[in-house]
Amino acid sequence: MNFIYKYTSIIFCFSLIVFSTSCKQSEELNEQKVGVEIESKIDSIISVLTLEEKVAMCHAQSKFSTKGVERLGIPEIWMADGPHGVRAEISWDAWDYAGWTNDSITAFPALTCLASSFNPKLAGEFGFSLGEEARYRKKDVLLGPGVNIYRTPMNGRNFEYMGEDPYLASTMVVPYIKGVQKNGVAACVKHYALNNQEHWRDKVNVEVSDRALHEIYLPAFKAAVTEANVWALMGAYNKFRGQYTTHHELLTNKILKGDWKYDGVVISDWSSAHTTMEAAMNGLDLEMGTGTDGLGTTTSNHYDHYYLANPFLKKLKSGEIPVSVVDDKVRRILRLMHRTNMSSNRPIGRANNVEHHEVARKVATEGIVLLKNENNFFPIKDDKNLTIAVIGENATRSMTLGGGSSELKAKFEISPLQGLKDRYKNATIVHAMGYGSGASVYDQVLPSPYNADSLRVEAIKVAKTADIVLFVGGLTKSHLQDSEGNLDREQFDLPFGQIELLNDIKALNKKVGFILVTGNAVDMSWLNQVEGVIQTWYLGSMAGHAIADIVSGDVNPSGKLPFSFPKKLEDNAAVSFGKTSYPGVDLNQEYKEDILVGYRWYDTKNIEPQYAFGYGMSYTNFELSNISANQKKSTITVTCDVKNTGDFEGAEVVQVYVGKSDSKVKRAIKELKGFSKVNLKNGETKSVTISIPVEKLAFYDESISDWNVEKGNYEIHVGNASNNISDKIEISIK
Ligand code: BGC
């Protein structure tokens, strides 16, 4: 017996060498489709695996790894969060950090910021750099990006996602994934699907129409699969139409693996698998993070009790589940290995290098959005006669810590205060904390250890004597703020007495600008108290430098909002329908706004948002002219001239929205179908061309369960924000 084992093992080591060599000859890693030859090698491996070995490959062996098959040289798979940086090492079998000294990384900006850049090329650089860091940390699967649609401003996890528009999210996610995977590291797009809130995330049942599902909530996942060839995908916690989404007949078997022909691995979210039968039969390939009712403390290996472990093996042995089911899962896992840890030509990766820091800074500066700039408050010159008071806890608070699984152990994090101090060498910078929010502890709100009155008095004193005040406030990444957990935000307005403090400061100093650090829209009824507002998101390691780049004018802001800011929370579509729609009643929830998410709602219902999707100012001015649109065969070509009419070099995002007013079905007034970011010197004009395939005008026709392009007239809206359209052109589709 021993002899046979050894013999088989030699043959397989040999076949793995052949297997790896053929990888070497293949095209760029990202383009790798698994060819017939590899598929037959995978088949031959499957044919010698025992049932026990196959089952062992389908579930976790630790918090973030799965078993290989030692006797055949099949490696383990190692995973790490997350979307904007590689998470610190977690202990083998507990949620604590492992305490390593060599696992700190570059913290990249959170994905709302990347989306705001409206720069797909930059998304590619982001993905590639992040993939290099994951590779350096010896990870095979990076648990990101997240592309759940921004449905309400209350979702604590919005900062991890790419905004409210499916076209924007799709366009940004494809180069990101390709970038990561060029390193031989699988991206794992998440959370599939309809995980649009944290509140009750592990049990809420979502009801949504087929149309909204296909037009709003699935496109970014579809693009990840069909355009980026993503190698892994993570299920979500919630239910959809009564079934858990991680093992869902319609979402996984029919749409993902059937219609989209996904050939990668479906991984559960940590603890999102619920039954052996559904996990086995509805497309879950790899079960991770399942809580096992405390078995972890009473049995030697609680991973054996996972739904896809012993209970699965038992059903396979009894014939209740056919062996072809486990074979398909193992085939997908081996395919992922072929693309990652069994590929011999993957680069070795690198972390914390200058180039990555520069990418992080570029994404941060391009993603920052200038919202208001009265009396040219920004940019602020570095003048020796100037005293700038930097007020607010967010000027010094770490924003890479907290937030849940996307928390990072950054090698360094430049705070806004530090960034401003480094940049302003002549002006005097003074600082006061102003308010205190308390420590960030997972699932808990700790009271602030500071005396609120003394903080306030000190801040007022500092602000009074300064020429200019920069109020650095917003949200934090603690529980009930911008954070993962089982609850969403509890309030739409700014917490911790920030507004009271702002009012007090304003009474003594008229020159106040707000640096708003959030991953979400917040109430802005304080807007007329300030002359300027910069929306900075969570910017990672280079946060302070990027903020100083924009505040000083070294970089001209060009970010555009990836989601709308409502004037009041009730204006938000989902919230406006009451609790049945958000956050749900008795664990059930109906997406009553249907396809009218974000700007689609504000536009169609004629509600003026505080700030519209696609909006963002610059220190210069742009003019769009000579706008035209033509259709030839299956493509609509939109052209337009963009002129920089101001004094600074800068970039503008030309946005093309399409509407159909005489449609036979309900439609939004307009939907984003194309955009292009163009950089212009002052006085310069460039012509921009945006092509839109006619098939992208289709709506999801529930009567035929398929996409349908209606004939007739369409309106092409061209502008630089969803609420600032320069021209509207009609075209006819025959
Ligand atoms: C999160 C995932 C994450 C996983 C592992 C879950 O709670 O929802 O996004 O990848 O934990 O940390």
List keywords for this structure.
734 residues; alpha/beta; six-stranded mixed beta sheet; 27 strands; globular; disordered N terminus; binds beta-D-glucopyranose
* Parts with pLDDT < 50 across at least 5 consecutive residues: 1-27
For the biggest β-sheet, the strand order reads 1-2-3-4-6-9
Which small compounds were modeled alongside the protein? beta-D-glucopyranose
Please outline the major beta sheet.
Answer: 6 strands, mixed
What would you call the structural class? alpha/beta
Instruction: Supply the number of helical segments.
Output: 20
- Rg of Cα set: 26 Å
Q: Label the overall shape.
A: globular
* Alpha carbon gap, first and last residue: 71 Å
Q: Helicity, in percent?
A: 25-40%
The fraction of residues assigned to DSSP E strands is 15-25%
How many extended strands? 27
Mean pLDDT: 94
